[in-house]
Amino acid sequence: MNYHVLTLFPEMIEQGLHTSILGRAMEKGLINLEAVDIRDYTEDKHRKVDDYPYGGGAGMVMQAEPVFRACEDVQRRIEGEKARVIYVTPQGKTFDQALAQELAREKDLILLCGHYEGIDERVLEEVVTDYVSIGDYVLTGGELPAMVMIDAISRLVPGVLSNEVSAEFETFHDNLLEYPQYSRPEVWRGKAVPPVLLCGNHDRIEDWRREQSILRTRKRRPDLYESYETAQMASISDKKLSKNRLKLIIADKSALTGAEEGCPERPWAGEFLELIRELDLKLVLLPEEDPKRFCKIMERERVGRREALVFTTTVEGVLAAREERLRTVYLPEDETASEPKELIYYRRISDLLEAMAVLRKLAQ
Ligand code: ADE
C-alpha cells in the first residue's frame, strides 16, 4: 500500500507514523508513505498557498492551483490506474471499519489534508473521489484524521500485524464489539477471571466470547447491535445455510409452548418453531417428570454433545444441562430471578432475534 499525503505540514505526517507497528511495516516495504508538501507546488515567491475567501468571512482558503498541481504530480508518478483521492473533512462520510477494509484493498491512496477555512471548491470538484470524516467534531486540520485513517487501514494490509487472525476476530468483526480480555493474575484485587476461560474447552470458550460480544454490543452500542441483528436476520433467510452442525434442540415444554396446549406463551415462539423447521432441526421436549434425561435423548437421537442445544426456563435445567456439558440457552420465566454466578453461558436470552441468532450460528 502506498500512501501519498498532500499537506502543508509534511513533518507532522512523517514524524507521526514511523513508530512501532507501522514503522516496521514501512521497513519491510509492506506500506510506503510519502508526505507531499503542497507549498512545493505554488509559484508564489513567498510560498503562499492561501488567500481571502470571495464573499468575505473569517479565515483563509487554500487556493486551487497548488493543490491541483500537487495531486496531478502524484497521479502522474503512480503506475497503473489513477488512485482514489480522499479529502479528509468533517463534511465527509464517516470513516468506519468497513471503509478501512475497502481502502486496504487499494494499491495507492492519495489523502488530501485541508487547513484554514477549507480548500477552493473548484479543485475539490476536479480531483476528489471521496470525502471522508473521522467523526462529528472539528479539528484544526486534516493531518490527524489522515493519520488515523492510515493507521486503521495499514493494520488490515496483509503482513502488517504479526498475527493476522487478530485483525479478523477483533472489535467490529461481524458488527460486534470485542469480548473482554483477561491476563494474569487469575485473581486481581479479589476479582477472579471468568471460570469458563480456565476450563480448557475451546468450543465453550468460543461460545462464551461470542455471547459476551453480543451482550456488550447490545449494552454499549445499540446502533451496532441493530446492524448485527439485521445481518443475522438476512442470513437466516439465506437458503444456502449449511445444516450439519446443530441437529437437535432439547427444550423444556415451557420454554417454547404456553400453559395451554398449542398456544404460544412467548410472543415469538411460533416464529421460533418455524425457524427450527426451516433449519431442519429436530426438537425434543424434555419430559417434566425427568428433566435430566439429556443423555438418553441424545443416545436415542444419535447426536453428540456439540450437535445438541438445550433451551430451558429454569436454573435447575441449566445446571443439569451444564453437568452434561451441553450448550444451553436460558430463557428465564421470571426476568428478576437471581441466578448462580456460573450461569454465564447464553443466559437470559429473552428475545426472538437473539435466540434465532444463536440457533443460526450453531446450525452452520
Ligand atoms: N478536518 C477537521 N476535522 C475533521 C474531521 N473530524 N474529520 C476529517 N477531517 C477533518
Summarize, please.
The protein is of the alpha/beta class and 364 residues long. It has 14 helices and 13 strands.
Characterise the protein shown here.
- It is a single chain.
- With 364 residues, the protein is an alpha/beta fold.
- A five-stranded parallel β-sheet has the order 2-1-6-5-7, sandwiched between helices. The protein has a four-stranded parallel β-sheet with strand order 11-10-12-13.
- Strand 12, helix 13 and strand 13 form a beta-alpha-beta unit.
- It is built from 14 helices and 13 strands.
- Residues 236-244 and 341-351 have low confidence and may be disordered.
- It folds into two domains: 2-154, Alpha/beta knot; 192-362, HAD superfamily/HAD-like (Rossmann fold, 3-Layer(aba) Sandwich), CATH 3.40.50.1000.
- The structure holds adenine.
- Adenine (ADE) binds next to strand 5.
Shape, principal axes of CA atoms: elongated
Radius of gyration: 28 Å
Order of helices and strands: EHHEEEHEHEHEHHEEHHEHHEHEHEH
Per the CATH scheme, the topology name of the largest domain is Rossmann fold
Q: Residue-averaged pLDDT, rounded?
A: 84
Number of strands: 13
Helical residue percent band? 25-40%
CATH architecture of the largest domain: 3-Layer(aba) Sandwich
What structural category do the secondary elements indicate? alpha/beta
- Count structural domains: 2
According to CATH, the homologous superfamily of the largest domain is HAD superfamily/HAD-like
Strand content: 15-25%
Main β-sheet: number of strands, strand sense, barrel status?
5 strands, parallel
